[in-house]
Amino acid sequence: MPRQIVFAVVTFLHDLFTAVWVGGLIGLGVAVLPAARKVLGTGPQTKQLMDAIQKRLSALVYASMAGLVLTGLLLANRSPAFQGLFHFSNAYSAVLAVKHILVLAMIGVALYRSLVLGRRKGPLGPSQERVKAGLLFLNVLLGIVVLLLSGISAALSAGPPPA
Predict the structure, then answer these.
(1) Which DSSP string corresponds to 142-160?
(2) Average pLDDT in the 38-47 region?
(3) 75 touches 10 (CB < 8 A)
């Protein structure tokens, strides 16, 4: 019973970290940014609002990234089909490998957006703002694909459905 409780808590935390990070991305990209642009236009007020929101979300996102790495390793090791990080020796490991590659890409995009583009001195030019927004939408798309791969890996770890 204690192992099941630990598994339940680790799974809950993994899902919570995913919801915070990917849910935040989707909410920001699909609701907040378009609404801010509609109400405030594309001027400095919109940039100030988005920067303030990003600053508040950054700590949650960084904690979620670290939590996802830790809980993901614990969850992957639970399956007998897991062959190790970045192995393609069976369907389960291959799906996880692709998922992990995409998560690393998401981390890279998030760090670039916040640490490089977000900390530039002075205002970003229009082309840099477009790049920043495009990277947000790229991470939204990657996050959705990661969620799909999570569902596929869960189905593969459960084995074939009963006949």
Answers:
(1) HHHHHHHHHHHHHHHHH-S
(2) 84
(3) yes
Work out how many domains the chain is built from and give that number: 1
Going along the chain, which residue ranges are E strands? none
44, part of any domain: yes
For residue 48, the enclosing domain spans 2-158
68 CB-contact burial (10 Å; exposed 0-12 / middle 13-18 / buried 19+): buried
- Which amino acid makes up residue 96? L
For the entire predicted model, the pTM comes to: 0.83
Of 25, 11, 7, nearest to 144 (Cα)?
25
- Summarised one tens digit per residue, pLDDT across range 93-146 is 899 899 999 999 999 998 888 888 777 666 677 788 788 888 989 999 999 999
Question: Vertex 89, ends 91 and 6: CA angle to 5°?
Answer: 65
